[in-house]
Design a protein that fits this description.
9 helices, alpha+beta, globular, Transposase_11, 300 residues, Transposase Inhibitor Protein From Tn5, Chain A, domain 1, ISAs1 family transposase
Length: 300
């Protein structure tokens, strides 16, 4: 409780620097070289039961590695953008943020940090949202014959559902209303997800703005990687760590426990064993040797 969260964060940052100096566990299916900060996702989160802590988490999707968290107001748009993006300032990274972070100041700060962004659009930027929808739908009618565009379609079957995703990215029109205030904006995109489960078909359409050049494969990878923070980080914190059930109220204590949870989650995901997170946590309590493996990031 007496440990200041800022001091804890500084120690965490030092540990991340040590990670950057050694090989990290890469996806088994990948045959390419990954940079630690290639895709960085930021997403807001609150501990639902206690309503005690609202934070923005930052997640390196390819490695299952937490890069940090920033405590903020329950409405992140009221927080200083520098706080929301403080942990995202990684040169060369692609930073993805859900709609709450689609703000001009945040986009500007990302570009000034020599990174790129892919930002979701929803009602909080209604004018821009409608403008992007209109621009994409207009070109879609002509099969994007008059603009620089790129498309990609993927299909997968898992968890009792079949899903087809269509990614379309095009250069941002110079006539797009409200374009000028968005620093670095080069492209706009849409993702159409068609899902069939138990014979029932559902569709979802999501729109994005980005500082990336037109490349649907790269755009698709960034969008899909963003959900790693929800599936691999927040879901694990909810289910494995039961963070939503926390009743901690003291400010420093709740923030430090949130840091501890993310630190240990990152350590466990770096361990090469195939056991579940639950079993790995239990094994740390059962075996000092296994605990040392997790803490050292290696097998003994």
């Amino acid at each position: 409780m007496i440990l200041k969260p800022a001091a804890f964060q500084a120690c965490f940052a030092n540990w991340l620097q040590s990670c950057a100096m050694r090989p990290l566990r890469r996806p088994a299916s990948s045959n390419r070289s990954w940079r630690l900060m290639e895709n960085v996702a930021a997403k807001s989160r609150s501990q639902e039961r206690s309503r005690a802590l609202h934070s923005v988490s930052v997640w390196a999707s390819e490695f299952g590695l937490s890069l940090g968290q920033v405590a903020c107001a329950r409405n992140p748009t009221r927080s200083r953008p520098s706080r929301v993006t403080a942990a995202c300032g990684h040169q060369g990274a692609i930073i993805t943020i859900d709609a709450m972070g689609t703000q001009k100041a945040i986009a500007s700060q990302i570009v000034e940090g020599e990174a790129d962004y892919v930002l979701a659009l929803k009602g909080n930027q209604e004018t821009l949202h409608q403008a992007v929808m209109g621009a994409i739908n207009k070109e879609w009618e002509n099969d994007f014959a008059d603009v620089k565009a790129s498309r990609l379609q993927t299909s997968e079957t898992a968890h009792g559902r079949a899903e087809t995703r269509t990614y379309i990215q095009m250069a941002v029109p110079e006539s797009l209303p409200g374009l000028k205030p968005w620093k670095g904006l080069k492209s706009i995109g849409v993702v159409v997800s068609d899902c069939v489960r138990n014979g029932k078909k559902t569709s979802e359409v999501r729109y994005y703005i980005s500082s990336l050049n037109v490349d649907a494969k790269r755009f698709a990878h960034a969008v899909r990687s963003h959900w790693g923070i929800e599936n691999a980080c927040h879901w694990s914190l909810d289910v494995t760590y039961r963070e939503d059930e926390s009743r901690i109220r003291e400010k420093h204590l709740r923030e430090n426990f949130a840091w501890l949870n993310r630190l240990t989650l990152s350590l466990l995901k770096q361990h090469p064993g195939r056991d579940s997170l639950v079993m790995k946590r239990r094994s740390c309590g059962w075996s000092d040797d296994f605990l040392l493996q997790v803490l050292a990031g290696s097998t003994l």
